[in-house]
Amino acid sequence: MRIKDKALYNDLDKKLTEFIKIHSMPGISDSSDKECLIHQIIDSDRRIKIAQIFKSKSYSSIVCDPSKTTFNPLKAACYHFQNGDIDEAFWLVFLAIHYGKHREHGWNLVRFTYNGLGTSIVWDWQTISNDPTLFRSWLRRNHQNLKQKGTFSNHRKYVSIKDKGTGATFESYVNWIGPGKSHEKFIQDLIDTVGSDPKILFNKLYNSMSSVKYFGRLGKFDYLTMIGKLGIVNIEPDSTYLNESTGPYEGAKKLFNDTSKRSLNFKLNALEAHLGLNFGMQIIEDSICNWQKSPSNYIHFRG
Predict the structure, then answer these.
(1) Residue 257 CB: number of other CB atoms within 10 A?
(2) Cα–chain-centroid distance for residue 167?
(3) How far apart are CA 29 and CA 9, in angstroms?
(4) pTM score, whole prediction
(5) Partners of 102 in the beta sheet?
(6) pLDDT in tens, 144-176
(7) Positive or negative: CA dihedral 18, 23, 29, 33
(8) How far is the CA of 8 from the CAs of 1, 29, 40, 46, in angstroms?
(9) What distance in Å separates the CA atoms of residue 221 and residue 223, rounded to the nearest whole number?
(10) Contact of 294 with 250, CB cutoff 8 Å
(11) What is the C-alpha radius of gyration for the chain, rounded to an integer number of angstroms?
């Protein structure tokens, strides 16, 4: 274990011991279960930090070129954000989360969608927001070719690449941003209404994003947390959104030996506050989901 991970491990061990005195956690009464949970929290924290490192780096335009294998939608989002193209930054994050990064095929689905399968068309924000029905028409003709280029990530494995799936998702995303087609204005209008508190703003965006088709709890949660981690908007999750989840709910049930979602939400909020980690709600959501898959024997998950 790395020295900095060891320090975090000891801090988490101490804080969990303190927390158990307030809220019983039968799921980690055994030392091996507790150790496994701590390792999952450390892994989740590391994934948060890796994403946040992106925003502090400067990138060349090569990361934005979908004709190159060096294309990376998250680094490209940072590049565009740093150079003032807010809309393209949002759009690339959305593409990255919609398809995800496959462990074998990487960002291929994002890349070959974005570059129109290597044709002269690039499905950037300006092009798709001007008329998303053109993209849907293109997808109907090309979804089989696109399917051969890659695979959705594990988080998005049930999503359809066809027009009725991906096409509908993209068009409804454009509609979510509104007729002005400006993410910056969309966010500012919301801030003018609800204020700029990062957690309140996250909650309002999460709820409003229900209008994006086939983009459920995990899609919304992953998209908005990534927007926050990359510093595109100052938002942070206010909740694990347990009520709509499967894996995190199973993890919370096992951890607290409780089935009440209201009670579990209260306890998870208290745990997040006690641990005091940056993007704590995403760390808890991610770590308990992975922990419940193998609570006694640590397995490293890639996220």
Answers:
(1) 11
(2) 20
(3) 17
(4) 0.96
(5) 106
(6) 999 999 999 888 888 999 999 999 999 999 999
(7) negative
(8) 11, 20, 12, 11
(9) 6
(10) no
(11) 20
